[in-house]
Amino acid sequence: MLGRLNHVAIAVPDLAAASVVYRDTLGAKVAMPQALPEHGVTVVFIDLGNTKVELLEPLGENSPIAAFLEKNPSGGMHHVCYEVDDILAARDRLKASGARVLGDGNPKIGAHGKPVLFLHPKDFAGTLVELEQA
Amino acid sequence: MLGRLNHVAIAVPDLAAASVVYRDTLGAKVAMPQALPEHGVTVVFIDLGNTKVELLEPLGENSPIAAFLEKNPSGGMHHVCYEVDDILAARDRLKASGARVLGDGNPKIGAHGKPVLFLHPKDFAGTLVELEQA
Predict the structure, then answer these.
(1) Mean pLDDT per 10-residue run, chain A (134 residues)?
(2) How far apart are CA B125 and CA A19, in angstroms?
(3) Which of A65, A63, A62 is nearest to A9 (CA)?
(4) Which amino acids of B are annotated catalytic?
(5) Domain extent at residue A98
(6) Which residues pair with A58 in a beta bridge?
(7) How many domains, in total, are found in chain A?
(8) What ipTM does this complex have?
(9) Which helix (H) or strand (E) segment is A23 a member of?
(10) Residue A54 belongs to a domain with what CATH number?
(11) Which residues does residue A118 pair with via DSSP β-bridges, in sequence order?
(12) Nearest-angstrom CA–CA distance, A83 and A132
């Protein structure tokens, strides 16, 4: 069922500063920021050739990453995103196995314009898992 | 400078249980455990096609992931590993930019038999970064 790693997301308190670290200190290919108000974040994608890092900064009130950054003020790894061929089939299989799907269980449209779902960290070795339709 | 994402490492309190979640619940390709006593961990690699997840369980006294698991008893994302073509040139460039290299600054041999270094999380958006010679 599980496909490629689409991205690793890192929540950061200062997107511009983190972008400079990845571009200048690490010498990576860093894209321009994209504001995603419907997700409460501004994102910057870093192209690593085989996959991506997604830097996330809170946007607006009630950002879903605000609490994470209160606990981790320097930033930190926030989630991993795996691709699946059929997100509804994956959701149903996961729910049947007892895993918890976050929210109302219906996919939303993610940063790449594709359906995504999030899974409860406690069911996946303490890691917030995003699934994205490949 | 920065090459591919070699792996995302997830520290777990119970490697067998986490392997079952990835193999059976998520349907991933999960390899056999490898004990790495010189690194204080037992590892399981999960092949995602484009990159890998590395599950880490403490091995022996003074495991370098023991403190992380005390803070995160369910487990959690521990580090990311990026490939570089020349690890000594990368280290020297990073040190010149003011970034902190952990340990004595000399590469050790990692889980893939290649030289690796770790960089201070505070210099990289709160994320522990491993560099591996490609």
Answers:
(1) 96 98 96 94 97 98 95 97 97 95 93 92 96 96
(2) 9
(3) A65
(4) 130
(5) 2-133
(6) A41
(7) 1
(8) 0.95
(9) none
(10) 3.10.180.10
(11) A130
(12) 5
